[in-house]
What does this fold into?
Amino acid sequence: MDTGSDLLFDFKNVALDRHDKRILSDINITANERRIAIIGANGSGKSSFVRMLNGLLLPTEGQVKILGLDVQASVKEIRRQVGFVFQNPDNQIVYPIVSEDIELGLKGLNIPKAERRLMVDEVLKRFDLLDLKSRSSHALSGGEKQMIALSSVLVMEPKIIVMDEPTTLLDLRNKNCVTSIIETLAQSIVLVTHDLDLISKFDRVIVFDDGKIVADDTPKQAVAWYKKHMS
It folds into this structure.
C-alpha cells in the first residue's frame, strides 16, 4: 500500500475502549484507494473503526492520521475534510426544512448567506431534488431523507465520504439510486455495508471480526474469505 504523507488514513497500534470494554485492538493499516469497503458481522467493530476516521471516536491507544493529520490534534479540520453519512438519516437531519438542514454545516465556514443558498441549490439540482427544497425534512420518505443527508455532506465538499450502511433502510429503488450515486462521486469513499453485491467493483475490502482486521484484499478475495469463515 501507498505509504505517502497524503494517505487517506493511517492507523498505528490503535486500540479503542468504550464503556470499559475493548472494542478494537491491534489495528495497523494504511489506505489510499478511492473505494474502500468495510465488512464484518454485527458487533465486529467496523462501525467503531469508521467513526475514528472523522473523530467521532478517538483512539484509546495508538495513533490515527487522516490525510496526514493526527485525529487527536486536528479533529475540527478532519471533520471538515471527512463527511459522514449515517445508516439512519433521522440521526443526521436537524432542521425542519430541507434547505435549512443542508445549509447548516456551511454556516460555520464564514460563507456569505447568498453564496450558501446557491451551494444548497446546486447540490439539490445535482440529484434532481430541488422540488424538496422547502419541504419538511421529517415528512420525507426514507429514500428522500437519505438523499438529503448525503446532500448535506456533499455540500461541504469533503475529500472523503464515510458511509455507515447507507442502503440498509432503503427499498430497492432508493438503494439503486444511492448505489449509482456512490459510483459517480469524485470523493474517496469508505463504506460499511452488509450488501456484498454493492462492493463488487470497489478497490479494496477490509474484514473485521472481534475487534480486529482479519482480512484485507480485493472484493473477490475478501468476500470469499468472509463467506467461508462466517458460514
Residues 38 and 192 are 5 Å apart (CA to CA). The chain has a mean pLDDT of 93. The first helix runs from residue 46 to 51.
